[in-house]
Amino acid sequence: MEYIYLFGASFCFSIQFIFNKLFESRSDGTYNAGMWSSLATALCMLAYLLPAGGFAFAVSASALTCSLLYTISSLLCSGVTILALHRGKIAVVTTYMLLGGLVLPFVWGIIAYGEALTVTKAIGVVILMLSMAASLLLDLGGGKSDDTQKKSGGLLFHFYCFILFLTNGIVSIATTQSQKAADAVSADDFLLLCKVETAVAAVLILLVIGFVKMKNGDKRGLSNAFVGITKDGGKMTGKLFLILLGSCALYAVCNGLGNILSLNCAQTMDASIQFPVISAVVIVLGALFGWVIYHETIEKKDWISLVLAAIGIVFFVI
Description:
By secondary structure, the protein is an all-alpha fold. It has one domain. It has 11 helices and no strands. α3 (61-85) packs antiparallel against α6 (154-180), α4 (90-113) packs antiparallel against α5 and α7 (187-215) packs antiparallel against α8.
């Protein structure tokens, strides 16, 4: 059963990027838009989770601590994902995110749970880090001829991707720790707690953005913080609102199912096995979806990074 959870989570986490990209392509690609997406996604998930849980959920000290860590990292990750997708390819963004979700939980597993550090896993870590370095160096060395750099340059894009590496890794650590704690709550209760905190935090951040806009002379700053996220400053129409909300809802379904399956998997499977498999599947499918659906070219430098990442993951599961 744990392998059904594992591959189900991998597929859900892969397909969610389709809807991430759809949202980004119809928004202005700012952090403000990322917070709008986080709020809409959290509300969509709560619309299901709250009734399913009887409008109540269990809380423990470890769940509260882990959920706060999850929420802070997830909000930063969500906002920066929109910024990164606005400037680069799904394949590169997913690679950085999933490597963070692999390497950092692996290190945490060694420190916190005493999981074995083998020679092959150590080699795998080195190769995975080389894949990130190769992606950066090859991208910067290739000039600005392709679509990954036409917006603002490779360095800023890879900076965003490195933040995704860190934040997605912390989300994975929080997820694993929440289920291995002595006073752990159920996977559904933990996810519900995280989404309640995410919705509240996203509203507060949008309010802060709105007040800053007003202070800078935008009389409609508060309302613009919540709805002024359209591409090229266009008007928020009913059709566009439904497209943005629908993409968030579909992302919520995929992300919610992925998290539930991953949390159930974490109860019985070592992080050193769970996250390498999820990472491998998502990296491959992310590149495939970007190519098939959004016609993103996978160039030679992208293949070098992807192949190195795949080799590094193989060393993890040997």
